[in-house]
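FAQ

Q: What does a record look like?
A: Structure on top, sequence underneath. For example:
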């Protein structure tokens, strides 16, 4: 058995001990900074608890990682957070003590116009590593609006009455810059932490509708979706679009993973169509293409795009603009 010099073992143990001591010291320093910050800003003494360190890269030492983080604070039964950094001053800390009150006030300016069975809102404001963190100089709601507004607001609903949002007008609401409303088919979806915060793409198959408001315009899209084999085809439901199995499939030498389908646009304007396939429906070790017809002629296969959402699930998708009065035939191939 190969012997390791005792001095090396002692050095390694001492290094680990010093690293651990440094991390513990930083944690206590962050807690003290957070308590001092709250005392100076709000005039009361809150108790510092657990510290969640910022993620700054796996190659960083434990001691370096522990220099900044979110400190959990409690005061009279209320829990809130303070972000602190040992190499900055107390004045550079931030907190979300007024988060509930301010978010409720922002939501109140439009919530009465939304009739639905369930609703979850997400308001995008704040600085640093956590949602709704504000600096030491932000004391009042007016301070918040003046320094961080207007805000983007994301509303996720279940059982939305579309007529109820027709009267929403944010042009005279200084707090809100853009308002997004997503109505989901599944009630549990609105409580998902990784909800979309943009115009929906492959999520359309899971939505009943989407609405967007800014100071100048309003957009409302009611979606329809159809599941054909493993393929979800979603589009704006305006009565002019249909999906059916292709009666006379185009001749192709490629190996089909799905059947051919006709995407028919009987309207006069382009139809924005999203075709999505859950990663679980396909073999993740292979690459896939799709082939389609244009003006009745078979086109060269195109690569089937894919990405992962924040939960790590893979999605394959196709985005097609189908001209008015045209039919596109399409299928998935290996």
């Amino acid at each position: 058995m190969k012997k390791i010099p005792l001095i090396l073992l002692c050095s390694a143990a001492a290094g680990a001990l010093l690293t651990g001591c440094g991390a513990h010291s930083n944690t206590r320093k962050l807690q003290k900074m957070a308590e001092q910050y709250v005392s100076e800003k709000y005039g009361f003494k809150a108790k510092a608890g657990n510290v969640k360190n910022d993620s700054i890269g796996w190659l960083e030492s434990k001691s370096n990682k522990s220099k900044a983080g979110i400190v959990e604070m409690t005061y009279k039964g209320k829990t809130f957070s303070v972000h602190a950094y040992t190499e900055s001053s107390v004045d550079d800390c931030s907190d979300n003590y007024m988060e509930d009150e301010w978010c409720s006030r922002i939501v109140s300016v439009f919530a009465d116009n939304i009739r639905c069975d369930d609703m979850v809102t997400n308001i995008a404001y704040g600085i640093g590593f956590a949602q709704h963190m504000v600096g030491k100089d932000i004391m009042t709601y007016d301070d918040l609006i003046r320094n961080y507004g207007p805000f983007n607001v994301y509303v996720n609903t279940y059982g939305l009455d579309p007529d109820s949002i027709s009267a929403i007008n944010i042009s005279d609401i200084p707090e809100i810059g853009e308002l997004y409303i997503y109505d989901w088919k599944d009630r549990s979806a609105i409580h998902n932490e990784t909800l979309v915060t943009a115009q929906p793409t492959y999520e359309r198959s899971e939505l009943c509708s989407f609405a967007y408001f800014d100071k100048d315009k309003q957009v409302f899209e009611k979606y329809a979706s159809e599941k054909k084999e493993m393929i979800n085809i979603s589009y704006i439901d305006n009565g002019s679009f249909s999906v059916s199995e292709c009666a006379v499939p185009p001749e192709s030498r490629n190996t089909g993973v799905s059947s051919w389908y006709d995407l028919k646009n009987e309207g006069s304007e382009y139809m924005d169509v999203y075709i999505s396939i859950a990663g679980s429906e396909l073999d993740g070790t292979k690459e896939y293409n799709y082939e389609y017809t244009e003006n009745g002629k078979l086109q060269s296969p195109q690569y089937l795009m894919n990405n992962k959402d924040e939960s790590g699930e893979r999605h394959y998708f196709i985005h097609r603009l189908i001209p008015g009065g045209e039919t596109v035939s399409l299928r998935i191939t290996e």
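Q: Is there anything notable about this one?
A: The two ends are 54 Å apart (CA to CA).
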